[in-house]
Amino acid sequence: MTKYIIKRLLISVVILFCVMLIVYALMYSMPTKFTEQMARELSKGQGATKNYEDWLAQLNAQYGMDKGLIPGYFTWLKSAVKGDFGDSWKYNMPVTQKFHETVWYSFALGLVSFIFEVIIAIPLGVLAAKKQYSITDYTVTVVALVGISMPTFFLATVLKLVFSVKLGWFDLSGMISRNYYNLSPAGQFFDVAKHFVLPCITLTVISIGSLMRYTRTNTLEVLNADYIRTARAKGLPEKKVINYHAFRNTLVPLVTILGGSLPGLFSGALITETLFAIEGIGYADYHAMVAGDIPFTMFYLAFVAILTLLGNLIADILYAVVDPRVRIS
């Protein structure tokens, strides 16, 4: 297992190197480089001490864009390995500082949605498989397909129309109310939590569909296995057959799916956070990309790439751990 993990880590490093090279190449090859836009803004700002050409030369040198594609990439990579991703042009602070300020909002939003997704999707998927071709099964299938097919922006708009505009239960967007600073610490906590309700519902609804269908399919496969028929032939209660024998084996592939999604809790939900103005890492990156903030965008894409590779590694390891039939040579 140790040898396998080391091998996968080395492969992940190579993949990460190639992915970031592609991202840097895209940034480098843009017809109108963001460095030109930033240099133009800095040269026209109040108290500007340099002209446009000087700012452009400084920014290009800082990110290696004056050295050619490959040398420039290694210039950026050298700083990135040291944890130096530069200062954000949009937020006027170190990129890592802005990351620390925003990532925990995304984590809280993603964690709550993930918990509700597991609590809702897995039991319903098992129930649908248990009552195959019944009204319950068809209802769960329809709900799953709706969740898979529904665009995030459409669901978010409907929720805001119903619960914010019509009923007035929640604010349209933002993280705090007008009287937030007049509340007690407990009141401030519940005020922020209230603003997270609609985003959590949005993320949960659009996520449960695929997990629900996956659970149903795997449960049906397990229920048709020989050992399940043997358990029933021995006279075991159906409840024990489903909940003990079938469900335990259904969890094997589910654990790998859920394990692979854990790193995604930190990557943020760019569309949902932007629609509800939740100031998480996804929201920050959206505004950074719109503003042409190369340092923050490069950091965010590197962060997402690392999380994706880490998620795949966790999924593979968990599969080997939970399934004794798997042997890694």
Keywords:
329 residues; mainly alpha; MetI-like fold; two-stranded antiparallel sheet; 14 helices; globular
Summed up, what is this model?
By secondary structure, this protein is mainly α. 74% of the residues lie in helices and 1% in strands.
How is the topology of this model organized?
Elements: H1 2-28, H2 34-44, H3 52-62, H4 69-81, E1 87-88, E2 93-94, H5 95-130, H6 135-149, H7 152-166, H8 185-195, H9 197-223, H10 226-233, H11 238-261, H12 270-276, H13 281-290, H14 294-322
Antiparallel strand pairs: 1-2
Provide a descriptive summary of the structure in words:
- By secondary structure, this protein is mostly helical.
- It has two domains: 2-84, no CATH class; 96-322, MetI-like (MetI-like fold).
- Helix content is 74%, strand content 1%.
- The chain is built from 14 helices and two strands, in the order ααααββαααααααααα.
- The chain has helices at residues 2-28, 34-44, 52-62, 69-81, 95-130, 135-149, 152-166, 185-195, 197-223, 226-233, 238-261, 270-276, 281-290, 294-322; strands spanning 87-88, 93-94.
- Strands 1-2 form a two-stranded antiparallel ribbon.
- A hairpin with a 4-residue loop joins strand 1 and strand 2.
- The mean pLDDT is 83.
